[in-house]
Amino acid sequence: GLSQYSSDPRTEWDLSTYSTRDQVLEAVRNLRYKGGNTFTGLALTHVLEQNLKPDAGARLEAEKLVILLTDGKSQDDANLAAQTLKNLGIEIFAIGVKNADEAELKQVASEPLELTVYNVLDFPLLSSLVGKLTRVLCTRIKEKSNKENSDIPVNTGPQLSPTDLKISAVTSKSMHLTWSPPLRPPKKYRIVYYPSKGGVPKEVVLDGAVSSLQLSNLTSHTEYLVSVFPIYDTVVGDGLRGVTSTLPLASPRSLRVSELSHNSIRLSWKAAQGATQYLVLCSAAPDGAED
To answer: Which InterPro entries match (predicted)?
Structure first.
């Protein structure tokens, strides 16, 4: 499978798209380079949520490897996203070209770094890595496969996916999530939520026996995208997704002006539910006298 990224990751083809070597090579030859920004953290999250799931061809019993190819320093937190993948047993190889930040490559990559981090001065020099990288990748897969138990079921359909996401008790700063667990209970759940118009994704990790969550400290009057992913030992199941807007904050009502004098006025209003303070702004009308 292959994804390109700048500020918006894009899946070029999934793990299940091609079944022969020649088909993959032809797809590589037809690939159009995507220029732009370098949001590596967002790209790694995209790979986890979109490319390493059963619907995209990820097999539960197969080892999971991610090869990151980048020519610049990430403009977001690549380390946090990489740690999430590594915690799930996904191995990351980091290859830097030209202006890549070697310290960041070492943060993102899996141990041992002498086998997983590579850096070259320009794109044509990538060809010098192919032989060694191929040998290392194949050896790592064999090593890990030999250690794993081979009796994991191959059928990874709906039995790995939660259903029926319900969002309730929505207020201006919170909402409650519930869902029905999959037939095969996951090890953990990963819940990701963020404003649909842009914002830093936040995540919560829950034990696989739990199937509800209260989200707090949200922004009022904001549409949120919510995703729930079941996490197993070697794969992430298909996620549930939902969209809900928090309520607007209550407003004060019925503003009244009284007790006017040459230098004062009295204001009164009906209280806004939940307000702990009020900010009152006063200025002269545009064609009025001096403030």
So the answer is: ECM_Assembly_Org (IPR050525), FN3_dom (IPR003961), FN3_sf (IPR036116), Ig-like_fold (IPR013783), VWF_A (IPR002035), vWFA_dom_sf (IPR036465)
**Matching residue, tokens 């939660």:** 162
The rounded distance, in Å, linking the Cα atoms of 93 and 101 is: 14
* Residues 190, 135 share a domain: no
Identify the three-state secondary structure at position 197.
Answer: coil
In a domain, 263, yes or no: no
pLDDT digits (tens, 9 = 90+) for 133-181: 888 888 888 777 665 544 444 444 557 788 889 999 999 999 999 999 9
Q: In terms of Cα–Cα distance, which of 26, 16, 105 is closest to 53?
A: 16
Please state the separation of Cα 254 from the chain's center in Å.
44
Peptide linkage before 112 cis (omega within 30 of 0): yes
Within this chain, do residues 72 and 190 fall inside the same structural domain, yes or no? no
Residues 119 and 221 in one domain: no
* 176 CB-side CA count, 13 A: 4
- Which of residues 147 and 9 earns the better pLDDT score? 9
If asked whether residues 123 and 175 sit together in one domain, one would say no
Q: What is the 3-state secondary structure (H, E, C) of 150-193?
A: CCCCCCCCHHHCCEEEEEECCCCCCEEEEEECCCCCCCEEEEEE
Q: How many domains does the chain have?
A: 2
Report the predicted TM-score, pTM, of the whole model to 2 decimal places: 0.56
- Domain span at residue 205? 163-246
